[in-house]
Each structure stands twice: as structure tokens, then as C-alpha cells.
């Protein structure tokens, strides 16, 4: 298969209730010729793969998934399109008005017989729910026959109830076996029920089938509950927007908004897209997006998130991002991608379960034949115990123990503005021993203001005009502060060309035909333009905790500009919280040593100053030699260090480069959320350990009691189903976990 022959396709698969369901779908399709890069996401009900249709057509993929008992429908966007897409009007008009995390209705178009409970359907409306009701009625009818008729007639009633109830389960078992997966819970259930009929335990067989059906419905309800958090995020974005064109307004679908269009957001309305306020002043509630409970005042120039609520007055907003790229979309995309980034613990358990299940089947065979053959024991007794052992041996609870906890932690974090890209990130965050902070925009507000302008070979206005020309178009906080001061001072506009950033040094541009720079004093010293008088001025301002930049041409220092960026209100508290968690903190900055010392002294944190981007990487690697390092930053120059650390965390106000490079993000720009993220990760890992203990502990107990003949078939299926439900419910506790609460 060549790249030209293959393409990426995506479907929505309904009815997947646990990790083993996702494993069946993955195992069935990845064996097909021409199929590669198979990714099955349980929580977002997504199947994505690369396919050469010359070897396997798309309809064959869909047919195999349906045979396994799941509903499948093509995603409502082009195969190569990624991210968040709002449903169109026809999709949005469903009676339940629901959509899944990708903006698609989980059961729309699903034709499989075992579609799970969707967000708008009750359990009894699903195929699995109907199976529970049907098998329950058959079992009740059989018991009624037993009370009113002879035992022989009652036995046939139980046999009939068993056969009718196990038929759909057997079909799925055969489909899985044909797809190369013989060791599934459906196969074990079919063997156990059939074996029970053979050894004349029809009543118990019928009860086991009913309990199995109940367990599947409970798993579906629990899985659907875990998906609710992501569905709620998708529903935050309104379906429509009020578009302004030529002074007139009209209502259009929100997903059709384009960048630079103007929308009107009335009081009480949700913002339909990420944008910038161009007119109006109002408080905006961003709690649904960032978890910040206090509404933020939005004035012209302020950014707003899609899904936030305008509280007070009408706002005119210029759209800055399309529907596929807005903040909600990025959160959902992170959660979707996170499912593919499985934790090392999850991968280990997945490998273990592949060995565990055949091993249990082997032990069950030995239990069935060794006592009768070697010791003359009764065949019925030991076959019965072997069948019960098969049911206990199902690894469903063990397999779901990790992804259920991970999904709950991801959802809980997303609701509070704490984003993590998967289980591997959660595991790494929980192991953190050192946190390295960038200074500007991370520990500080990142919005410095100019405090001093010191002319050297020109006037103050000339210094500001030249500095503003070099920094024009830059989004760096220092550049924005200089541009703001130049505008306020009425400095003349100077045209600049060939402008570029010099990471860790400053910026340069050609102004009025001659190259000019705005850079650090160290850079100016390297260029030979910083004399003793200027150096003394720099030292004096830096001792006051100010950041100083030099404005110079090729052979002449024009002047100095001093700026100050105050620490965030919660920065010192965040350092204290990390210390309470046993985590060491250090500030890494490209700023001068004096300014760094002044900031770090007030925060109670160690510091390393005058670092180039490569120096930050070296510092992170040095810490990684003795522990697990989390790097927190927000700028382009932080991206290498973010990528190098065990886990990189980007502040929500940071650049797109930092956000894409990082493993996690903090939307609320609160430094204390770093400690909150670690608390959540540690709680998730503790929850995983509890789940593994529950799954293995229950199975170990009932394994012994079954072999000893203390427990039978119906207890065995209760143990399996009960363990799965207990593990899922325990994982769901993470949805209520409060990362801000200090231990």
C-alpha cells in the first residue's frame, strides 16, 4: 500500500461500553488487508484508520463492526478533516438534540443490533435494554411454569429462556471468533450457558444469561455517564449566531462563521465563536470553559471564548477562529487525542489481559478433566465448576480499570480548565518531583509596562519611535508594552522592513534604510554599543527589579527602555502548595540576574537567569537526571523546554506553538492550577490502583471459592459484572474531585 492509494477514514461507533469492546473493534479491523493506523476511542466512540480501498472497501469495515454487534456510521465531515465540527441543521434537529464529543450524534445512522444507550435514549430503549427485559420476562415465565406445572415442563421453559437469551450473545461470539478473537466474554458466556444446559443446570443457565444482560446494560449506562462531560462541552457552543453585515443583522449557523466576521452577542447569549471585542463593555462568565467562577470584564480589545456567557451588555465581537479551531474544539480535540495516548500502566494491563484470558481457559479445561480422570470425581461437578471459572476469568473489570479512571480524570480536569493529553501525561504528572517555571507570562502577568525611557544619543521620543518601529507586529509582551507607550507619547511612525525575532536576544528590523535592534543589554554588549555610563544605568534599573532593553543601531546606542512585570497574585501561593506536595520549584528566565533575583525572592523560589532557549533545555535535562520534571511556560522560546521535559504545561494565554508543543495546558492562567493538575493526576493514579485491586481481588476470591465448590455460575457472573460496575463507579468518583482542595 502506498501513500497515494490510502486515505484516513473516520466513523462513529455506538454500543462500546468498555475497553474490551474497543479492543474487539480494533482487533477485527486491523487484521484486514490494506488497514493500518487503527485508533479506537471508547469515550468519544470514534474509529479512525488508514485504508487502501483497493484491498478492503469501506463497506467491509462497516459490515464487520456491525457483525460484532455495534452500530457504525460515517463521520459527518470529510475523511481527512480533523477536529471539532458542529452538526448541520438536519443533524441538529434530532428529537433529543444530542451530539457526541465530536459534534456527531452517537447513534445517528447506527444499524447494529447492539447500539448502546445514547445521550437522548433510556436504557430500556436500546437493544441491550430490550434483551434484559426479554430475558427477564422469559425467566419469570419459566419460574411460573415451575410453580404451576411439572419439573420436566419447567426445565424445557428454562432451556427455551436460555436459548433465546444466549442467541444474540452467541452471534457476537462467533463474529469475534471469525475475526480472529476467540477469547471474548461473549464466547465464554456462550460456552458457560451451553455447558450448563448439557449438565442439566437449565435454571441456573437462564439466570446467568439474564444477569449477563443486566451487567451489559449497567456497563453501558456507566460508560454513557463518563461521556456526559465531553458531550456537555460540545453543547456549550450555540447552534446559531447573529451576524452583522452592512449594519444589518441576520441569524446564521454558528459553524458557518468565518474569521473577521462581526457578530452581535446580546446579554444572556453564549458567545458563538472565539473572538475579540470591538465594541461594548460587559462581564462575561467563562466558568463553563475555564472553570473560573468570577465573570471577567470584557472591553474593546479583549478576547472572548466560544461558549462563554455574556452577562450584562451587548457586545460586538470580531471572529478570530473558525469553529474547528475555537477553544471548545481544542479542548475536545485534546480529549480525543488523549484517548490514543494510553498510559504505560494501561498498555501493560492490555498486554497482560491477552495472556490472562487464554490462561484462564486453560485452567478451566484442567479443572474440568483432571479431577474426574485422575481422581474419579464426578464429571458434572467439575464441569460445572470449570464453567463458573470461565465466567470469573473474564478480564473486563481489569481492562477497564485504567481507561475508566483516565477518562474521568480528563473530563474532570477539562471542566476546570486543566487539560492533559492522555493517560501517559497523567501518569507523568503524578510522578513529578521538580517544576520549572518560565517567568514572563507564567509566574508574572506577562503584561509589563514601560517605567523608564533613558535617551543616550537622541530624545525620549526618538528612542520610543525607533523601538516601536523594530517591534511593530510582534506579539511579545515587552514589544506590546513599548508600542503602547510609544502611541501614548505620540512618537512618530517609522516604516520598518525585514523585521524578525532573535530568540533569547531581541528583535531586529531595517528602519529608514539602516538596521536597528531592540535587545537585551547582554546582546547590546556583544555588539559593542554599551559603554560604562549606559551599563551603570542598566545595573541601577535592574537592581529595582526592572527589565531593561537597549535600542541601538549598528554602531550607536540610541537609548534604554526599562519595563516591569509584576508577579501573578497566586504565584507565591503556588510555590508554597508545590512545596507542600514535596515538589521543588525553579524559575528559568532569559531575563537578567538582578531582575530574576528580585522576582524570585518575593516568590520564595530558586532561579536561573540569562538563559537562552537552549540553556533552558539544558537546565531541564539537568533536573531530569535526578527526578521527573514538569516545565510550565507560555512563549515560543519555551517550546523546546516544554518538549524536553517529562511533561510540558502551557499557560492558556500562551502562543499556539507552546500550546501545541505542550502535553498539558492551564486555561485559567492561575499558577496554583499547576499544583491542582498534580493533585488530580495523583488522585487518578490512586484511583487506578484501587480499581486494579478491586478487579484482581474479587477474581482471586471467587476463583478459590469456585474451585472449592462454594460459589456457582450465577455468583460467578455477578462477580464479573459486579467488579466491572464497581470499577466504573469508583472511576466516576474522579468527576467530583476538586483539584483546588489542599490535602
UniProtKB/TrEMBL annotation:
Keywords: ATP-binding, Cell membrane, Membrane, Metal-binding, Nucleotide-binding, Phosphoprotein, Translocase, Transmembrane, Transmembrane helix. Residues 81-121 are annotated as: Disordered. The chain crosses the membrane at residues 131-149, 155-174, 355-376, 382-410, 692-717. It is a multi-pass membrane protein. It catalyses: Zn(2+)(in) + ATP + H2O = Zn(2+)(out) + ADP + phosphate + H(+). Its EC number is 7.2.2.12. Residues 7-73 form the HMA domain. It is found in: Cell membrane. Belongs to the cation transport ATPase (P-type) (TC 3.A.3) family. Type IB subfamily. NCBIfam families: ATPase-IB1_Cu, ATPase-IB2_Cd, ATPase-IB_hvy, ATPase_P-type. This is P-type Zn(2+) transporter.
